[in-house]
Amino acid sequence: MTRIIADISVSLDGFVTGPDPGPDSGLGTGGEALHTWAFSDDPDDRRVLREGTVRSGAVVLGRRLFDAVDGPDGWDDTIGYGAAEVGKPAFVVVTSSPPESVRLTDLDWTFVTTGLSDAVAAARERAEAASSDSGKDLDVVLMGGGATVGSAIEAGLVDVLSLHLAPVVLGAGTPLFTGGTPRTLVQRSVTSTTTATHLTYDVR
Fold this sequence. Notes:
Pfam families: RibD_C (PF01872)
Helix content: 10-25%
Protein name: Dihydrofolate reductase family protein
Oligomer: single chain
CATH class: Alpha Beta
Distance between the termini: 17 Å
CATH architecture: 3-Layer(aba) Sandwich
Number of helices: 4
Domain Bacterial bifunctional deaminase-reductase C-terminal: 4-194
Order of helices and strands: EHEHEEHEHEEE
Number of domains: 1
Strand content: 15-25%
């Protein structure tokens, strides 16, 4: 069964970027500390990263995040989805208009201009097709940014919330939650390392 999993790193004060994020600094000032765990040698961090990447049948991201990862200082042969772990799933970008060109042409990009719900539906189709081809259940992963994940939770599109709580206080930046409808979360797992506390919740 294909699940919709929101998977994102967040600071102790609730930010998914530092201050002043932009195309040349997608994580903002100090935001790199949010993802220290993804490059850690800790076996639990490696396992969490590997399991998250392996389960990805399709990935949803917002246009701002796409511009950062596809920009000149974005992903390359050493840094990409899953921080060079296995797998290159299909990517679905929510945007008001597709870009004129794509730098990362070796990845499978789909641009959806009719809203987040349609983007998630398109990603589910891709993940289900990948599941059928591989013979194992694969999921849709919402990797961000914060507004995309927050909107998906608010719209009731998310089945599982996977947070990587980094031991850093950023003070400002892009918040993950900005209010909205209360949601009941059921805690499923907690894994603590020196670089993050990995939390998994079912979303009701």
